[in-house]
Model the fold of this input.
Amino acid sequence: MAEENANQAPGEAKEAPAGDAVPAKPSSGKLGMLVVVIVGFLVMAITPLVTFFAVKATLPPPVEKKGAHGGGHGEAQGEGGEGSAKPMMDLKPVNVNIAETKGTRILRVEAHLVLSEAKLLEELKNSTPMLIDRVITAASRKTLDELDGPEGHEALKRDIMSEINAAIKEKMAGSVIDVYFSEFIVQ
Done:
C-alpha cells in the first residue's frame, strides 16, 4: 500500500476501493439550475390561468336583450304590439361610382331596410337583387358634394326609400319606413 501511495502524485486524492463506493451528491450548481427550471415552468403554467380568472372576475355578466337576433340577413328583429322593433332586412355592401368623378371616386354603402310589416320581409327575401339594384341606382346619381355631411347621408336614405317603395308599391303590401347605414365610405 505504501508503494501505491508512492506512485501517486502529490495532491491527488486516494481512490476508494470499488466496494466502498459512496454515491456522489449532486453539486449545488446543478441543484440550483433544477430549481430555476422547475420554478420557471410553474410560472409559465400558472400565469395564463391566473390571468384568465382575474379578467373573468372583472367583466360584467352578459345581458340578454329581448328581441335581439344573431345578425343573420333578412331576419325580423321582433313582432308584436306597439313599441316593438320593426322587421329589418340587411342588404350586402355595394360599391358605386360617384357621379361626375369619371370613376375615380367610389362610395361603399351597406344599407339596412326597416319595414312596415313582417310579411313584407318574407316577400322581399326573394327580391334581394332588385333591392340592391335600387340602392345602386339611388347612390350612383349622387355627386361628391351631395354625399358630403349628414344632410347628404339623409338625402341618400330618402332616395333609397323612394326607389324601393316605388318598385314594390303595386306588387307587395307594406313599405320601407327607414334606412340605416352600417357602412358609408367615400374613397
Observations:
- Residues 25-61 form one domain.
- Residues 28-58 form the longest helix (31 residues).
- Strands lie at 88-90, 94-97, 106-115, 176-186.
